[in-house]
Write a structure and sequence with these properties.
Helix content: 55-70%
Number of helices: 12
Structural class: alpha+beta
Number of strands: 7
Order of helices and strands: HHEEHHHHHHHHEHEEHEE
Largest sheet: 5 strands, mixed
């Protein structure tokens, strides 16, 4: 009888492991946030596996057959917890009740004991991902000794003594040879799965933390740019309302004093007053240029289009401007203006160009900027601090800047700045 049982039980254990591999692949792809629903699905899958195992048992006699369901229930209790184990156990007991035979009580009792042993060890063990093959083999051996002891007692109580003695004599050796090994192998498979899931979860958490930190860095860079723009506006306003107005008043006072002296005054005094008035006027012009470089008031009041037109008028090279009248956030408009300002400054200083073109387009979620000239080319963005500073400024807004400047082929500076949908200027009522 032992020779007949051993090959059948080895085949049954192989079926258990094969079905467990399929279950591991399927369950690892199920991602449901609600834990109880996931546990319910796991229990149904375990129940299907258990029933499929019970469909290929070793038949000892009419109504007496054995399979590896206890291995599955031990592992279910140990690795999946009470809810999946209870669902699987209910499905397997219901299926066993549909099978006739005097040993049904013994079989159901063995299933209950197997599930209980798995759940008890789960409660006592707590940590499962450090279980080794030796631990699982020892547990499987001890659990099946208890199950076989219970089965032996129930068989002698519910079956004829001759049948019970023959069945028990043929069961102990193959079951204690195959079942503990099957328990250990299946347990190791699920330990590996558990470690893999925990590693995946840790990677997901780490990635979420890194993305959150990157988002915080982007937000902080944007806040720094915005704070810098606000400070630029404040300085420009202070210069306009303070020093610039004082220089205008000083220039007017000097000219008034010169006029009051008349032509009869000392020529040296007249000359000094004229020189002072000219110096005051020159200082006023330089101060206005400085204020424009800090943050042009026209950009705040009238928008990017008029600010670029004003910038082009002050550039000694012929500049054609193609900029719409849409308004954007102050950070976007500031970044776009300084890209164009730096590009035109480079055209004036280095390009030896006769003309340049500025083109700005506002699309659904970003703005594109192009500044081209017909100069000598050969610009190297890494050699100057201006374009590097612009790249850093645009990066704070998730924008980019590229420079194409072949020798003798002119220079083209392109920038892309993410932006909200542009808001058109209101149309004046007629």
């Amino acid at each position: 009888m032992t020779d007949l049982a051993l090959p059948a039980l080895v085949q049954n254990a192989a079926l258990l492991l094969a079905v467990a591999v399929v279950f591991d692949v399927v369950s690892s792809r199920v991602t449901i946030d609600r834990a109880r629903i996931e546990q319910g699905i796991s229990g149904l899958l375990l129940g299907v596996i258990g029933v499929s195992i019970m469909l290929s048992p070793w038949h000892f006699a009419s109504g007496i057959f054995f399979d590896t369901r206890t291995v599955l229930l031990i592992i279910a209790g140990l690795f999946f917890g009470p809810i999946p184990t209870a669902i699987a156990l209910a499905m397997m007991i219901a299926f066993r009740l549909t099978q006739p035979g005097a040993a049904s009580v013994t079989g159901i009792a063995g299933m209950l004991l197997a599930a209980g042993l798995g759940l008890v060890w789960r409660h006592r063990r707590r940590l499962l991902d450090d279980l080794s093959f030796r631990h699982l083999l020892s547990f499987g051996f001890g659990a099946h000794v208890l199950i076989l002891t219970q089965t032996t007692l129930l068989m002698f109580l519910t079956l004829p003594q001759v049948v019970a003695s023959t069945a028990v004599a043929g069961l102990w050796l193959p079951l204690l040879t195959v079942y503990p090994v099957a328990t250990a192998l299946l347990g190791v498979l699920l330990v590996v799965r558990l470690r893999s899931r925990r590693l995946t979860d840790a990677n997901v958490r780490l990635r979420a933390e890194v993305e959150l930190q990157l988002e915080e860095v982007r937000a902080s860079r944007a806040r720094i740019v915005e704070a810098g723009d606000l400070e630029r506006k404040r300085v420009e306003r202070d210069l306009h309302d303070g020093a610039q107005q004082r220089l205008i008043s000083l220039s007017l006072e000097l000219r008034a004093a010169r006029s009051k002296l008349g032509e009869a005054a000392d020529p040296a005094v007249r000359h000094s007053l004229d020189r002072a008035a000219e110096e005051a006027q020159a200082a006023l012009v330089e101060l206005r240029d400085l204020a424009l470089g800090i943050h042009p008031l026209i950009l705040t009041e009238s928008g990017l289009g008029e600010a670029v037109e004003s910038l082009a008028d002050r550039t000694p090279v012929d500049v054609s401007v193609d900029v719409g009248s849409e308004r954007y956030s102050s950070a976007v408009e500031g970044a776009a203006y300084f890209v164009i300002s730096e590009a035109l400054a480079n055209v004036t200083k280095y390009a030896n160009a006769t003309k340049a073109r500025v083109r700005v387009r506002g699309l659904a979620d970003h703005m594109t900027i192009e500044v081209e000239d017909d100069g000598i080319g050969g610009a190297e963005p890494r050699s100057g601090s201006g374009l590097r500073g612009l790249a850093d400024r645009l990066a704070a807004l998730d924008g980019t800047i590229t420079v194409v400047s072949p020798l003798g082929g002119g220079t083209k500076i392109s920038a892309v700045i993410p932006t909200n949908p542009p808001t058109p200027l209101p149309v004046p009522a007629l």
